[in-house]
# Entry
Amino acid sequence: MDVNNVLGPSQQFIQGDKACVYGALLAGCRFFAGYPITPATEIAEEMSRLLPRLGGTYLQMEDEIASIAAIIGASWTGTKTMTATSGPGFSLMQENIGYAIMTETPCVIVNVQRGGPSTGQPTIPSQGDVMQARFGSHGDYEIITLCPSSVQQTLEQMIRAFNLAEKYRTPVILLTDAAIGHMRERITIPANPLVVTRDYVDIDYNDYKPFRTGYLHATKIPEFAPFGSKYNTYVTGLTHNDDGHPITDDWNVHAKLIKRITSKLTDNMEDIYDIDTRYTDYAEIAVVSYGISARPALEAVYMAQRLGRDVAYINLTTLWPFNYEYFSELSKRVDKIVVVEMNIGSIYHCVREATSGRCDVVLVSSLGGRVSTPKDIWEEIK
Amino acid sequence: MISNTELDEKYLRKGMMPSILCAGCGNGIVLNATLRAIDKLGMDIDNMVFVSGIGCSSRLNGYIKADALHATHGRAIAFATGIKAANPDLDVVVFTGDGDCAGIGGNHLLHGIRRNIGITVITINNYTYGMTGGQFSPTTPQTSRSTTSPFGTIEHPFDLSRIVVSAGAPYVARWTVAHPVQLQKAIRKGLDKKGFSFIEVLSPCPTSYWRRNKVYSLESVYQWYKDNTVSLTKADDHPEKITIGEFYDGEKAEWTELWKSLVGQVRV
Ligand SMILES: Cc1ncc(C[n+]2csc(CCOP(=O)(O)OP(=O)(O)O)c2C)c(N)n1
Ligand code: SF4
# Structure
């Protein structure tokens, strides 16, 4: 039976966490490993109910380190895999996120953000893990991070997360939060969403080098040989050459590898960087936000538009890689950028860096689960 | 019997040679015993995946011409669990060290056993964190010297195989590199077992362990393994010695089979 039948009616009134599972299953995810944590537990619960019905695999691991280890291992069998967690578990996953980056393993990691540091506010939303998503693992890397503002967007961004993970052979992070994860909204389940699957290698066994690129077409993404396909692939987190063999004392090999796995993303910003922008053409002020914070931001922009003000709305549904060029261009056209986030300032700093003083950049910050109100934002617009 | 040259020719990944192992390291003997066991069973190497963590012992899978995953420190069993659960047709073998398996990865070991995921874990116990230069590990005998116990360790070591038996693994054996024939047979039985099988090998790290404990010749090390071990049947008479042999050989429903039957019931 196909996925849509298992998911049920095409119109439903459901939680963000459940929509996250729907999106994953529509994208072809058939393997989940996780560990319970508020406010992400519903994702595991829903996966444990639906995956066996679809012939997939659900594993409840002993902790979050094991969970991400299991999904990376499973991905090497050619399965689309994911895990879901919140702050404390996301912290535990960082080392193996770096492993997935280094070994170019497609997988999706969902972080339903809650208040931190530490155990913090388990049931309360926050956007405190934005920088951790970008920089949490050690070493030099780039990572794709998506961020939905509604239940419908959670479903859609999940499909996109899997498509990007598969296309670019990289882990992708979906950053949502306790508010989006737990809120119920009406959604429409797409009948035939676009689904992308990694390129599988199909050449002579002896000619294949697992980390050489360009067998099928000229890209920086190596074609994949799943375990059991006779290509005898050695996967290591050590710096490796095209053969996958460890070479740890030659700066050239390391530099070449890091440049390839970072630029395979940054060279393709046009494809990866998908954001929701409105009223940008004549704007004097731009309100930049994402996730739950983008909702009051949109309200504030509507208020301004009603009063005849040219204020743009920019919702960063793609958070990372950050598009410095986009904001550099924007700063030449607007007088002021208002960044709305539920943290002490994260994307705010990137916007300031990209705009280099060419326009004002102000932060509307809220903490402790309080979502900024449209009025808070209006104060910076009026 | 297949000669070592034929064995190397058939199974080794030439591009990875020379190996990183020191002269006299026991890891090579464990690799040899493993390949012999695989050969004797006539297993299809292309259907096998060798998983490891981090450490000298965890480098072994790189030397085999087969699919392999050299994971992060301590996490080999968790990675292997994902591989086996996603594709139960694959034969999954884990190489791990005492630090990797019983220190940083101890919890994954216990839960791999509890789940009874069908993998074969070969733990090379050299009493030390070899790769980082010889710090004491969870299995280092009390009073041994190491770079972080210059006056002798005060800590009590784990008896790994007994822990694994009490956690409920359906196959558990412990041998030393001085018992290559028995070791090879235990690995064969482990590979044949449907559930979680565990083979512990006491193996020398002359560079980082024995040298610090003032044993300089390999002959003395091998003699030490012979003198200080006793077979299970005679263990009661020698409580001071390390027991070796087959600790347990039983049956227990394996995770992927249980999952498959659950899917069979609920699949739409
Ligand atoms: C998270 C983490 N902590 C520490 C290390 C450093 N480290 C590398 S190998 C190793 C010890 C390995 O010891 P063992 O598993 O006994 O293997 P051996 O080298 O003795 O074969 C350690 C601590 C690491 N790689 N990763
Ligand atoms: S340090 Fe010890 S365990 Fe590591 S290769 Fe040398 S002898 Fe073997």
